[in-house]
Specification:
This protein is mainly β. The protein is built from one helix and 22 strands.
């Protein structure tokens, strides 16, 4: 059994690294797009990542991911903190991992989001007169490319990459670099990943505020992310990872089509105003315990704080159960609680003399629960095989293997009358 545990632990190390490298872009995207101010780690996924990361050396791996997401609530920020938050989103994505030689890997993550939002549809309507408009739906396209090279002798892995995403009112470009060093005995690893985002928004205001004047200070934003992870195998059964994802943002942090109403001026409406600088400094601790050959316990705790005065605690638990050698069931649960930002107040509770103000309930005080279930089926010879258009050097067509299927459902509920559901699927293929 010890050999099995050691083997599983060694396979988990690249997964921890992948999670570490992936945290920075996810955190940064959370400040733009559909859910601009969410800090609880839930919402429409920006750049879906596959959970199927292991493949034989030299094999090309292709993951086809798709998800359907829906949410609803009663505190739409477009209407000043009251009104629908209904939104649906479909996200087809393809992830490629192509070995260039025994040490180098090329990766690509390409996809789109097709979403419809009843909330943003209110941008072009005033209370009592809402019509379906172009704001009711949009499509976001994204592409990220990366190159990773591993130096086995020096136990070192370096990588760099870049990407872009585009939707009707938003353009985002990014560059990234990463470095990881493993100890001589292979039980400890330290990794660092940095990413810089350059974002530009098309400023869209509520229909009644379109006077020709610019109502927010800028239409650009820069985000600088640094992720640091130290992972350690403590025993044959227990592995731990300590991480932080530091973020500094400068520029447009307000959403130009969010309305704000005021207690001392009932007829006054303005667009959301937030400071142009934001610093986030969360720390996290991840534990993986192999209770038996069939049961694994995973736990993650994160403390979050930023200079908007939000402080948050997040706890995640996941228990993969190996029902057969090829079938894994993994229930999961996540609890999140946060305090309100200094600049938040509910509908019509701000004062007209306030400098900064928002009624976006993503910046309010709330607690949230997310729970769900995942199923993974990965028979040793795969689910099927088929010929591809690509050929070996000898002329024969290459045969691809449908390696694994992963299906996952999650339900999310916040204490401020907001609910969401997401179902996702990951189809994993390999090709020699």
């Amino acid at each position: 059994m010890s050999n099995t545990i050691t083997s599983v632990a060694s396979r988990l190390r690249p997964l921890l690294l992948l999670l570490a490298l992936g945290l920075a872009p996810v955190g940064a995207w959370a400040q733009g797009g559909i859910t601009p101010n969410r800090v609880d780690g839930y919402g429409v996924p920006a750049t879906p990542t596959s959970t199927n990361t292991s493949h034989a050396p030299g094999e090309t791996e292709v993951n086809i991911l798709t998800s359907y997401y829906e949410q609803d609530g009663i505190h739409g920020a477009v209407q000043g903190g009251r009104g629908t938050e209904k939104l649906t989103d479909i996200t087809p994505t393809i992830i490629l991992n192509i070995p260039l030689d025994t040490a180098s890997l090329f990766s690509a993550n390409i996809g789109a989001d097709f979403y419809a939002s009843a909330s943003t549809d209110r941008i072009d309507g005033v209370e009592g007169l809402y019509l379906s408009t172009p704001s009711s739906h949009d499509t976001r396209y994204h592409a990220d490319l990366g190159y990773t090279r591993q130096n086995t002798a020096k136990r070192r892995t370096v990588g760099f990459g870049g990407g872009a995403s585009k939707e009707y009112d938003y353009l985002s470009l990014n560059v990234a670099g990463s470095w990881a060093q493993t100890s001589r005995d292979g039980n400890r690893e330290f990794s660092a990943a940095g990413q810089v985002f350059f974002d530009k928004a098309k400023l869209i205001y509520p229909v009644e505020l379109r006077t020709g004047q610019q109502l927010v200070p800028t239409d650009r934003r820069q985000s600088y992310n640094l992720s640091l992870v130290l992972s350690q195998v403590l025993t044959q059964r227990l592995q731990v990872a300590l991480s932080t994802e530091l973020v500094y943002q400068h520029g447009l942090l307000s959403t130009s089509f969010h309305r704000v109403y005021f207690r001392d001026a009932p007829n006054l409406v303005r667009v959301e105003q937030l400071p142009q600088n934001r610093i986030k400094y969360p720390v996290g601790l991840r534990l993986s315990y192999y209770a038996t050959d069939l049961v694994q316990l995973r736990a993650y705790y994160r403390y979050y704080q930023d200079n908007f005065d939000i402080r948050a605690h997040t706890l995640e638990l996941e228990t993969p159960l190996k029902l057969t050698p090829f079938f894994v069931l993994y229930p999961f649960y996540r609890y999140h609680t946060q305090t309100a930002a200094h600049y938040f107040a509910p509908y019509a509770q701000h004062l007209a003399t306030d400098v900064f103000y928002t009624s976006d309930y993503d910046l309010s005080s709330f607690s949230a629960n997310k729970y769900g279930l995942g199923l993974r089926y990965s028979p040793v010879y795969g689910l099927g095989r088929f010929k591809t258009p690509f050929h070996h050097a000898q002329g024969a067509r290459k045969v691809a293997k449908f390696k694994a299927l992963d299906v996952r459902y999650a339900h999310y509920q916040r204490s401020n009358n907001f609910t969401a559901n997401i179902i996702s699927a990951d189809l994993s293929f390999t090709m020699p």
